[in-house]
Amino acid sequence: MDTRRGLTKRPRPGRRCRHLLPVAVLGGGLALAGCSGGAPSALDPAGSGAGRIAGLWWLLFWISMAVFAEVMVVLAWALLARRRRDVRVRHGQPLRFVTVAGAGIPLVILVAVYAVGLRDLAALGDGPGPDAPTIEVTGHKWWWEVRVQGVAGATANELHIPVGEKVRIRLRTADVLHSFWVPQLMPKTDLIAGEVRETWLHADRPGRYRGQCAEYCGTQHAHMALLVVAEPRPDFDAWTARLAAPAPAPQTDAQRRGRDAFVQGSCAGCHAVRGTAANGRVGPDLSDVGARWSIGAGAVPNDGGHLGGWIANSQTVKPGNRMPPQPVDAGRLPDLIAYLQSLK
Ligand code: CUA
Asked: Which residue CA neighbors atom 1 of ligand 1 most closely?
């Protein structure tokens, strides 16, 4: 910079452009890095369904990169050629260039991508066989009801699948449009009122995979998460057996008092606990609530403090949910918490 005579040299436009390319590449790299940190990413697939989508994504990414590089090279050539006054364009050359680069190459790319897309679409339609386990998932504002076909019990916001097997997922909604999405396992499937939709899940390694409602369904849409636990077949069978069995009986005096408060109080009007007189159908079945990963479909962690806060006034935790504030005697609250935490 020359400031001796109060003059500032202006960078020429060509120089500025030279600095933009590294910035664009760095920005793209940071954006990609952001995709792989923390939150579940469809670019970190753990099953064959999401693997197809990730493969397609990377194919499109590298094609885009190649096209971008090609355009940059042509642009650079054009800028340099403009400075050299001796460039002669032969008759017919521009037309040939536009035909090949502007129509021919894009046509080849689009047809190839279309063919790969059709192949992946067919693979995603290749669901499990008739003997595969079927899990029925119903979307509610704002939680997921989960049942295994042929098993009486229900659970909420968590489902288990055996590793390495395709599992049929049958989807319904009890109210509005929702969308079932487990990014690391399978693309989205919408839940449409009056329809039964089907998808499947397949995990090729054990793990806990977070899912999320992917269609705006009201104020607490963001707090409509679910957890898919992929585990060895014997563990999956044990989970299914627990869904069929009555909830564990209370072991301590506090738990017994909690159970009585639950069954005789307003809780039982909306919630069920298998093996007790509580048989409500409005809210989630709580027979295994002590073992769940969260309270309120991912709203808060499942611990004593949050459970107490939820029971007393869940509207402060997840405003708009269907559970009204509960007039629970403060002395009874620890008993209720002890009982619910024992249900696992
Ligand atoms: Cu359910 Cu968004």
From this structure: 178
Cα dihedral across residues 98, 104, 110, 113: positive or negative:
negative
Residue 199 has pLDDT above 60, yes or no: yes
Tell me whether the CATH fold assigned to 134-244 matches the one assigned to 253-341: yes
Tell me which residues have their CB closer than 6 angstroms to ligand 1.
139, 142, 178, 213, 215-217, 221, 224
Q: Length of the chain in residues, anyone?
A: 344
CA of 282 to the centre of ligand 1 (A): 18
Scanning the chain, the segments in alpha helix (DSSP H) are 13-35, 48-83, 93-97, 105-125, 233-244, 253-264, 267-270, 304-313, 333-342
> Where are the chain's structural domains?
134-244, 253-341
Write out pLDDT tens, residues 63-92: 999 999 989 998 998 888 877 766 666 777
Q: What's the half-sphere exposure (Cβ side, CA atoms, 13 Å) at 62?
A: 6
User: What does the radius of gyration of the chain's CA atoms come to, in whole angstroms?
Assistant: 29
- Distance from the CA of 218 to the center of ligand 1, in angstroms? 7
pLDDT tens readout for residues 214-270: 999 999 999 999 999 999 999 999 999 999 999 999 999 999 999 999 999 889 999
Q: How far is CA 192 from the centre of its chain?
A: 18
CA dihedral 25, 31, 34, 36 (to 10 degrees): -80
- Residues 176 and 135: their CA atoms lie apart, in Å, by 20
pTM of the model: 0.82
Fold of the CATH domain 253-341? Immunoglobulin-like (2.60.40)
Across 174-255, the runs of DSSP E, i.e. the strands, are 178-182, 186-191, 197-201, 207-213, 225-231
Top mean pLDDT of 27-36, 137-146, 320-329 is at: 137-146
CA of 189 to the centre of ligand 1 (A): 12
- pLDDT at res. 38: 62
> Where on the phi/psi map is residue 93: left (φ > 0), alpha (ψ -120 to 50), or beta?
alpha
Assigned CATH class of 134-244 = mainly beta
